[in-house]
Amino acid sequence: MSSSEKAPVIGIDIGTAYSSVGVWEPSFGRVRIIADEYGKTQIPSCVAFTEAHRVIGTAAYDVNQISSNLGNTIYLRSTKRLIGRKFNEPSIGQHMKQYWPFNVKEKRDMPVVFVNYKNQWKQFRCEEISAMIVSKLHQLAEDDLGCCVEEARACFLY
Asked: Is the dihedral of CA 29, 41, 147, 150 positive or negative?
């Protein structure tokens, strides 16, 4: 990139079900949505933890992975509802019983997700799960653009 060129600024949309990342292309006067390594531009907002590694997005949403690893697959649509909440709120207990196949426990009065990762129980705050998805989108943009992305604009809607 020459000194007269501006570094790209990416836009990240963090959705409860799917997320995406785009970059402004001034020569075309539009935003281009960046695809993941599977060619998908709508990337599932989920993270899966396995004995060997952590997978994010499309790989985590794979039917075979989910069916064999349900309790260690975390969907943002679930954890986003926990951000800023106290563990003892009635809605937390209700959602735990009805919707979540993963473990949610209390730590310092806050809900924390517990997963079996690399054969050890690990805990993650809900914000950390969101950050993993943002990091994945950021990396996709850098890989696609072939340069370091230092600025991003993010949209987190509930």
From this structure: positive
